[in-house]
């Protein structure tokens, strides 16, 4: 919730975005916790976040016409990039679905936010990956916590 408060403070009055970020915070928190514990991301939670985000973006498109196209292109581009990672780098498919959904929110906020989201989400995973390499562990890394935190940080930074 601290990330939500930080993001709300930095969105400079976009009530639609603030409401959406607050609305999706509980299922995203659950996703991050579940992934950290089980290395699985429940589809029903990802779909709930997607549904809430699509409705909000469509609603926002009435007052800012370009937002829907920008958000959709961002979700498709980031989703495709992570789909390649799934195929060639052993990323989980749940992570791919989640990152495409979160890129919809980042795209809504702007292209700078999309770039910051992808970079920060990956940088947050770096210490975990290095730790796994140092210990020569081959088990999976929970990526959802980094994606969720990365989204909120990116919106906070990218909205300014």
From TrEMBL:
Entry's Gene Ontology molecular function annotations: aspartic-type endopeptidase activity
GO cellular component terms, A-Z: plasma membrane
Superkingdom field: Bacteria
All residue ranges annotated as the Prepilin type IV endopeptidase peptidase domain in the record: 28-124
TM spans (from-to): 15-33, 68-86, 98-121, 141-159
Pfam families (alphabetical): Peptidase_A24
GO biological process annotation, one example: signal peptide processing
Acyltransferase found in the keyword field: no
Full protein name: Peptidase A24A prepilin type IV
Organism: Xylanimonas cellulosilytica (strain DSM 15894 / JCM 12276 / CECT 5975 / KCTC 9989 / LMG 20990 / NBRC 107835 / XIL07)
């Amino acid at each position: 919730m601290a990330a939500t408060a930080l993001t709300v403070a930095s969105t400079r009055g976009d009530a639609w975005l603030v409401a959406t970020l607050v609305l999706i915070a509980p299922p995203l928190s659950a996703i991050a916790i579940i992934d950290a514990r089980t290395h699985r991301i429940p589809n029903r939670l990802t779909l709930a976040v997607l549904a809430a985000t699509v409705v909000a973006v469509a609603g926002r498109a009435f007052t800012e016409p370009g937002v829907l196209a920008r958000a959709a292109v961002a979700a498709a581009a980031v989703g495709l990039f992570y789909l390649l990672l799934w195929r060639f780098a052993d990323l989980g498919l749940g992570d791919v679905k989640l990152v495409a959904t979160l890129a919809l929110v980042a795209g809504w906020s702007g292209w700078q936010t999309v770039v910051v989201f992808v970079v920060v989400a990956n940088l947050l995973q770096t210490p975990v990956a290095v730790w796994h390499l140092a210990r020569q562990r081959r088990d999976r890394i929970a990526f959802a916590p980094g994606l969720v935190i990365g989204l909120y940080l990116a919106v906070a930074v990218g909205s300014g």
